[in-house]
């Protein structure tokens, strides 16, 4: 079966997701604000779920049409061969959103979509009541400028849930955003990476997995692999391919520091769960007292922004300490923050800046190449 895959992502990471999808077998890649689409078969869907580091989920589009009335919406959804996707006992909740469109009431649209799917399934499955006790086939609709897209969520839990972060510290960075920073920092096998404010270790773990080519989805399952209507071989094949490509014994060194002993513990635990425990070490250390040594390597960090964890004076001291660490250790540095005056306090203008959203917070990734 041919699919159109639609992969939402954090604003600013679209291009990276486009490259990832191409590498994973996607064709006719198209990049828009906050999402990337491509064409592919069941194997591409499985490979995308297992291998995408920066996308939030993998949806497949089952219909796209214009609609300005409930009747048009109903007919558009009714035209889909739903039985090809949803079996008799499948659960098929509906959610969605509408923006700048005639059909503005999301609850009403939700009810219409559900009704149309039920009507069509009644015809094909020859039943009059759906118990919905089986696997979940999450239906998602989006209506933008009167254009409707009807999608099925093949991921289930969001792709940021890799299965290694059993516990997160305070203000953890989302795994998909951390992976985007790792990509922009061009982390490779053989790299030495530092995070002097490592929290739960997300940046270090994502860096290690990237360097060793360990696919982020190897330790979890996805909704579509439990669908009886989906090619049953696709996920096992994709998982085997990802395992064959991984190099868990390759060279990589990650060093984490944090003032909080619990954070250090979390980093070590999460690294172990992710299968990169031998590549990452961590210890308690206050960055403002960091002992300088000409280490070389790459610094990745997500320091406290001063929004809730620390006050402006402490944030400034951390920025100054990061600047010193960068200069005296001959590092390349990639630091994400929403705090104002970062470059001034760090002591150097960034070679490049990239706007990225950490949840609702507009941040900058400051990139220093030397
Ligand atoms: C925003 S969190 C980092 C979250 C991390 N990226 C993650 O994914 O979990 C900032 C971290 O800085 C640590 N921290 C605050 N002040 C510090 C200092 N002076 N030296 C070292 N670490 C510090 C906090 O304990 C916290 O874990």
TrEMBL record:
Annotated keywords: Methyltransferase, Transferase
Domain of life: Bacteria
GO molecular function, one term: rRNA (guanine-N2-)-methyltransferase activity
Domain spans labelled Ribosomal RNA large subunit methyltransferase K/L-like methyltransferase: 162-365
Keyword Methyltransferase tagged: yes
Transmembrane region(s): none
Domain named THUMP: residues: 67-153
RlmL ferredoxin-like domain mapped to chain residues: 4-59
Protein's name in the database: N-6 DNA methylase
The organism of origin for this protein: Bittarella massiliensis
């Amino acid at each position: 079966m041919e699919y159109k895959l639609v992969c939402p992502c954090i604003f600013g990471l679209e291009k990276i997701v486009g490259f990832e999808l191409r590498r994973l077998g996607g064709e006719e890649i198209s990049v828009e604000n906050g999402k990337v689409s491509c064409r592919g078969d069941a194997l591409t869907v499985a490979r995308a779920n297992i291998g995408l580091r920066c996308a939030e989920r993998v949806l497949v589009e089952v219909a796209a049409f214009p609609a300005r009335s409930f009747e048009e919406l109903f007919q558009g959804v009714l035209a889909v061969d739903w039985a090809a996707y949803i079996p008799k006992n499948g659960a098929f909740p509906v959610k969605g959103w509408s923006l700048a469109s005639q059909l503005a009431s999301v609850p009403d649209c939700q009810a219409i979509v559900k009704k149309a799917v039920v009507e069509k399934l009644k015809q094909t499955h020859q039943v009059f009541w759906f118990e919905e006790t089986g696997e979940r086939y999450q239906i998602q609709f989006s209506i933008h400028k009167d254009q409707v897209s009807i999608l099925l969520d093949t991921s289930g839990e969001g792709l940021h849930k890799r299965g290694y972060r059993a516990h997160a510290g305070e203000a953890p960075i989302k795994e998909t955003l951390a992976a985007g920073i790792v990509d922009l920092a061009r982390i490779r096998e053989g790299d030495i990476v530092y995070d002097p404010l490592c929290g739960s270790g997300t940046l270090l773990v994502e860096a290690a997995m990237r360097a060793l080519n360990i696919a982020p989805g190897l330790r979890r399952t996805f909704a579509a692999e439990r669908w009886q209507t989906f090619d049953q071989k696709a996920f096992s094949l994709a998982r085997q391919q990802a395992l064959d490509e991984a190099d868990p014994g390759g060279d990589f060194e990650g060093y984490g520091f944090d003032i909080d002993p619990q954070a250090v513990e979390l980093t070590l635990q999460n690294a172990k769960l992710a299968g990169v425990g031998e590549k990452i070490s961590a210890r308690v250390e206050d960055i403002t007292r960091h002992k300088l040594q000409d280490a070389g390597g790459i610094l990745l960090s997500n320091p406290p922004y001063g929004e809730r964890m620390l006050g402006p004076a402490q944030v400034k001291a951390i920025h100054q300490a990061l600047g010193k660490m960068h200069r005296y250790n001959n590092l390349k540095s990639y630091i994400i923050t929403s705090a104002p005056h970062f470059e001034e306090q760090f002591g150097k203008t960034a070679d490049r800046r990239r706007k990225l959203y950490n949840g609702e917070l507009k941040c900058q990734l400051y990139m220093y190449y030397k």
